[in-house]
Amino acid sequence: xxxxxxxxxxxxxxxxxxxxxxxxxxxxxxxxxxxxxxxxxxxxxxxxxxxxxxxxxxxxxxxxxxxxxxxxxxxxxxxxxxxxxxxxxxxxxxxxxxxxxxxxxxxxxxxxxxxxxxxxxxxxxxxxxxxxxxxxxxxxxxxxxxxxxxxxxxxxxxxxxxxxxxxxxxxxxxxxxxxxxxxxxxxxxxx
Length: 191
Prior knowledge:
By secondary structure, the protein is mainly alpha-helical. The protein has helices at 2-24, 30-36, 39-46, 50-60, 65-89, 97-102, 117-137, 161-167, 182-188, and strands at residues 145-149, 173-177.
């Protein structure tokens, strides 16, 4: 189920990143991470170090429906993110979200690409989750941040959004959420 994947994803991704760091230092990309997390690679990648072995044992070796669902979910998520990761690897310009949060000039547009609807939605959801953590972690930001999220109900669940709505003002974070279908939003953020 999705809750199990949400709980399992961070430690599995962290273990894969640890394996990539041990093997390649700083010379790996988001595409390498997505490739490492593909079902046909994840066992070898995680078992390449003690931390990864433990995570593999915890999440994949238990003979439960959840572990088989996790493999299917990993396959779906990596399939969706692979084109984005490939494009990101070949991008001419890059943006560090930490640098962006610390800057005085804050403009960023997370657009959808109709040719790649699922990857665009997923990467924007991931970036908004990362961005919300960065913004909430900044005690004295140098400038005000305005987040305008159009078609909000279509962005998927952003785990820190409620916290950002409650705690963002002292950190100079303002949000404007626009939506078209309240019923869709209630499915993403149930009461």
